[in-house]
Design goal:
The protein folds into 3 domains: 67 residues; 278 residues, MutS, DNA mismatch repair protein, Chain A, domain 3; 217 residues, 3-Layer(aba) Sandwich (Rossmann fold), CATH 3.40.50.300. 59% of the residues lie in helices and 10% in strands. It has 22 helices and 12 strands. Helix 11 packs parallel to helix 15.
């Protein structure tokens, strides 16, 4: 039975119970007061139905977690939301992957391949972990210890997962805005909410006792007014209000996880126990119905009529401000545990991966059988770079761009989740920056060349710092004329090489290999041509490419023979 079927069945059942409750109220008013016992029975039945629904949904989520361990999870992800969360919590002084590098390395897709998180904090934190790469080994070793625990200890893994499932994921999670943004909320509504809640209770009692048309009409009027107040307030900060229940669920999960017996989670348990103890009173002030779609339409109406969430929100608001730092730590700690469990699942689904070995000094990048994590049938390559970078040449579609991304992505994974798609990986701690796919900015009036120049300038400004920079460039200055492109490229590559940068640059300008032969190693990709067309082996080779396939590709695609012959004639004369 699916979540949707369970929610629909529950909704119809509750609707039927409500009809029965109306019948009992009417019968009690007109016949026998004993019929009011039926109303009480209906209320108890609704509670039982909601409890059963909760248990059934939990069973589905738990079985899904068990059955999908080690498997990729296909679902929609709001990458703009995750990026906004990262920008919200990111400390300005720390190094992180900028937007250009994240896009160049296809990290949205890489994130989707790794992500099997259970909670919203987990999904958000995983994104931040991948983007905020580390430049020292200590935090990575702590992460690896927890990842190993989740890989090897099924009992602990499932105990933690049960609490994370109880938190779940929200489509619209405004808890980060509650905790990291300054909320300018007017308190003028609070007395009004209290007054009309009391008015509702008084009119309800009056309607039952008096059983007059006037009393019932007054009750209906108060219900309408309360719903109008609810809608007006919800328009301003309704999502914040509904997120209080989610924050309460996170605090409860933190308390339970802190009591799990395992030494490997000691650092996390201490944070969870200490901080959740300080804020446990917030659970009482937050709505603890962590609602979802379907039956929640009925719950929404109930909450709106009694103004439950509004009153609880104002009660909790000052508390959130007072214990803001503690709540932030709880949120991120729960998120990191979920994220690290995801990495454990990701590792267990891989046929080949390794843990990185780091060197503190110099500019070293050594890897054996390195592959790209997005390619199911990837061709592996090995590389050994020590102080010198690479000028990479080769034909179109031969694998240059994929290789550049393979190096960059694996450096990011090594320095974020302590996991590499290679048989072995040994490297320095790098800052990682790239210029692979800058685009024309038509709305901003910027040409392709201008965007390339901007992308390279940000790299030049970053190099020369304490930590070496891993710089990845594809087709440097392809947006301008050959004379200026080659000479400017040579000077830029010479400059950044002198300023603590290990550069891998792909180019069609073979002149660069000669101009920079003392500073850079030369590698290339090549292809064969047969009756089926162009055949690529995607294997890295040392040296400079001596083949070009642009014209052969035109011929393979069926261009007129006249174009092919005259192009080759021009090339020969040139």
């Amino acid at each position: 039975m699916s979540e949707q079927n369970i929610s629909m069945a529950t909704s119809f059942s509750i609707f039927g119970v409500l009809i029965a409750a109306v019948f009992f109220i009417n019968a009690g008013a007109n016949a026998n007061k004993l019929y009011f016992l039926g109303v009480i029975a209906c209320i108890l039945l609704v509670v039982v139905l909601l409890f059963i629904r909760k248990k059934l949904l939990f069973s589905i989520y738990y079985k899904r977690f068990i059955n999908n361990w080690g498997k990729k999870e296909e679902r929609k992800r709001n990458m703009n939301y995750l990026k906004n969360f990262f920008n919200m919590i990111q400390k300005k002084e720390a190094f992180f992957l900028d937007d250009q590098t994240w896009t160049d390395l296809n990290m949205d897709e890489v994130f989707g391949t790794i992500d099997r998180t259970i909670t919203s904090p987990g999904e958000e934190t995983l994104y931040s972990i991948l983007r905020n790469i580390k430049l020292s080994e200590e935090p990575l070793l702590l992460r690896d210890k927890v990842i190993n625990l989740f890989q090897s200890n099924e009992k602990i893994r499932e105990e933690v997962a049960i609490e994370l499932i109880s938190v779940g994921r929200r489509k619209e999670n405004e808890v980060p805005n509650l905790l990291w943004k300054e909320l300018n909320v007017s308190t003028k509504y609070r007395p009004i909410f209290i007054t009309f809640t009391l008015a509702l209770l008084a009119s309800a009692i009056g309607a039952v006792l008096l059983r007059s048309v006037t009393a019932i009409f007054l009750l209906m009027m108060v219900m309408v007014i309360n719903n109008i107040l609810h809608l007006k307030f919800k328009k301003d900060i309704g999502l914040y209000v509904s997120s209080l229940s989610y924050l309460g669920a996170i605090i409860k999960a933190a308390q339970k996880i802190s009591n799990i017996e395992t030494e490997e989670l000691k650092e996390y348990k201490e944070i969870l126990k200490e901080e959740s103890k300080k804020v446990e009173s917030l659970i009482k002030g937050a709505a603890d119905l962590n609602r979802s779609e379907g039956v929640d339409l009925l719950a929404d109406y109930f909450y709106a009529t009694l103004l439950v969430e509004e009153r609880r929100f104002f009660s909790a608001l000052n508390y959130i401000k007072k214990y803001n730092e503690e709540l932030r730590q709880l949120y991120l700690c729960i998120g990191e545990l979920d994220a690290l469990m995801t990495v454990a699942s990701y590792r267990d689904g891989l046929t080949i991966y390794s843990k990185p070995e780091f060197k503190q000094e110099g500019k070293l990048f050594q890897a054996e059988d390195l592959i790209h994590p997005l390619l199911e049938k990837a061709v592996s390559n090995s590389i050994n770079l020590d102080e010198k970078g690479i000028i990479l040449t080769g034909s179109n579609m031969s694998g240059k761009s994929t290789f550049l991304r393979t190096l960059g992505v694996n450096a990011v994974l090594a320095q974020s989740i302590y996991t590499c798609r290679a048989r072995s990986y040994k490297a320095s701690f790098f800052k990682v920056m790239s210029s692979i796919s800058p685009e024309d900015n038509l709305s901003g009036g910027k040409s392709y060349y201008f965007r390339e120049a901007e992308a390279l300038h940000r790299i030049i400004k970053e190099c020369g710092e304490e930590h070496p920079l891993l710089c990845i460039i594809d087709e440097i200055f392809r947006g301008t004329n050959p004379l200026e492109r080659v000479n400017a490229s040579a000077e830029i590559l010479a400059y950044i090489e002198k300023h603590n940068t290990l550069t891998i640059v792909a180019t069609h300008d073979l002149e660069l290999t000669e101009m920079l032969k003392d500073r850079y190693l030369c590698y290339y990709f090549s292809e064969d041509i047969n009756e089926e067309g162009l055949v690529f082996d995607y294997k890295l080779k040392q040296g400079v490419s001596n083949t070009r396939n642009a014209v052969r590709l035109l011929k393979y695609l069926g261009y007129p023979e006249e174009i092919i012959e005259k192009t080759n004639e021009r090339i020969s004369n040139f």
